[in-house]
Hints:
The chain has helices spanning 8-18, 23-39, 50-62, 68-85, 111-119, 123-133. By secondary structure, it is mainly α. The radius of gyration is 25 Å and the shape is elongated.
Amino acid sequence: METQPRSRITVYREALASRHYARRTIETYERWLRRFLRFHQLRHPREMGSLEINAFLTHLAVNEQVRASTQNQALAALLFLYKRVLEIDPDELDEVVRARRPKRLPVVLSVMEVRAVLQQLEGPAALVCGLMYGMAYG
């Protein structure tokens, strides 16, 4: 009895499942793998490397304008493929560029704005807020 060879996707799914990845994670990673393969005209991943991964990630960032976290999720799916399934040495993937999340600056009130807020308070609320802000009550 002949058995058909398992597809690349089936092998990938089984590798994720054997490492106890959540069902939703497996589905998400599989979607990223399919998109990556379609983006590169269904070339076998062994024929590709960090250049093709970077091209795909750049496409996601520039053309699809995905967030850094989405881009990094796609990268995680592809790194799993290369490192765990294809067992390609991670050193060969050193050129892969990770997206950086933009730094968010905290909203800070000016001294005049804080003073205006504190002047609206009375009693214990004024005392507590004044102490929390680190200024002397009065």
